[in-house]
């Protein structure tokens, strides 16, 4: 009976896998036409100084504008694009579009602030530093105005390739941040050697601050470690004033979160950049 059950379970999983493969294939086709039909958008979330709440940069976040359905979040389709390989042309589009937008803002006389784009593990594996640089150069941008965000997982998947790409990017002046820091399993010995500029503390740790003792220790330790390694540090997912106060108290100088600004379309990001909104002032309670 056990064997028969096992056989049936096997058939069940095989069907599940086949269903998933079919779903992925269908979604992959939709994503490819979405790119041709210009249905992808970038929204921009401000990175803000904790010292004076001034705007210090943006992260570009991908959205799929499905006609009649509204914006679809990247969580719904990035994993599939990563799985099918479509992430490579899609990721190239994201970088190109962020550079195009950055160029347009500079041409409008806006103050230069870096724009960050997310590079998925598979995209990183299939591209060289030269590939990324060619896209940045196409728009005549100073490389230090573009930042690439990669996860620990992307580095650990192919350490040799990642190390050489990151080293070349650094030599070119393109900034690199490790995203969702603390959730992966990169070892400290690699972190020490990684040619990166910034650590972004994952939202899951910021969530528990300041109440949860463990989260508070992890966050203050990451900030201190970044400082010792000479890296910038950004706290992600800051929603509450108490979190910002804790971070400031522990010498974290930059935050990104709903407290200081949600991701917005390019025209609203321009409002933040231009004189129309001088500072993203958030009051600090007495
Ligand atoms: P991420 O790179 O860690 O981006 C931060 C995510 O946290 C964004 O979600 C942002 O909207 C959200 N967020 C920011 N502040 C807060 C906050 O205060 N509270 C909460 N609850 N959430 C906040 P989003 O835009 O849905 O993106 C999710 C993930 O999808 C990103 O995480 C990134 O890993 C991936 N992604 C987004 N755009 C791209 C892209 O162009 N390429 C690739 N490869 N991945 C992307
Ligand atoms: Mg990111
Ligand atoms: Mg993140
Ligand atoms: Mg995240």
TrEMBL record:
Q: Which residues form the EAL domain?
A: 24-277
| Top-level lineage group | Bacteria
Protein name, please? Phosphodiesterase
What is the native source organism of this protein? Answer: Azospirillum griseum
């Amino acid at each position: 009976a056990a064997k028969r059950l096992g056989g049936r379970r096997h058939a069940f999983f095989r069907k599940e896998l086949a269903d998933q493969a079919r779903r992925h294939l269908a979604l992959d086709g939709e994503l490819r036409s979405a790119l041709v039909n210009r249905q992808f958008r970038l929204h921009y979330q401000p990175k803000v100084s904790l010292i004076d709440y001034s705007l210090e940069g943006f992260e570009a976040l991908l959205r799929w504008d499905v006609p009649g359905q509204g914006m679809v979040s990247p969580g719904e389709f990035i994993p599939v694009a990563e799985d099918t390989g479509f992430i490579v042309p899609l990721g190239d589009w994201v970088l190109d579009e962020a550079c195009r937008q950055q160029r347009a803002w500079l041409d409008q006389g806006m103050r230069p602030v870096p724009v960050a784009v997310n590079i998925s593990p598979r995209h990183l594996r299939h591209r060289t530093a030269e590939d990324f640089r060619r896209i940045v150069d196409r728009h005549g941008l100073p490389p230090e105005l573009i930042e690439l965000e990669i996860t620990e997982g992307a580095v650990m998947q192919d350490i040799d390739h990642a190390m050489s790409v990151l080293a070349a990017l650094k030599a070119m002046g393109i900034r690199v941040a490790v995203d969702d820091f603390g959730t992966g399993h990169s070892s400290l010995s690699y972190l020490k050697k990684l040619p990166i500029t910034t650590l972004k503390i994952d939202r899951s740790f910021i969530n528990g601050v300041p109440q949860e003792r463990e989260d508070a220790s992890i966050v203050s330790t990451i900030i201190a470690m970044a400082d010792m390694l000479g890296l910038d540090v950004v706290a992600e997912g800051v929603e509450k004033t108490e979190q910002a106060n804790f971070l400031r108290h522990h010498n974290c100088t930059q935050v990104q979160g709903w407290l200081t600004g949600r991701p917005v379309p390019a025209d609203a990001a321009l409002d933040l950049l231009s004189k129309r909104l001088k500072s993203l002032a958030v009051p600090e309670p007495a």
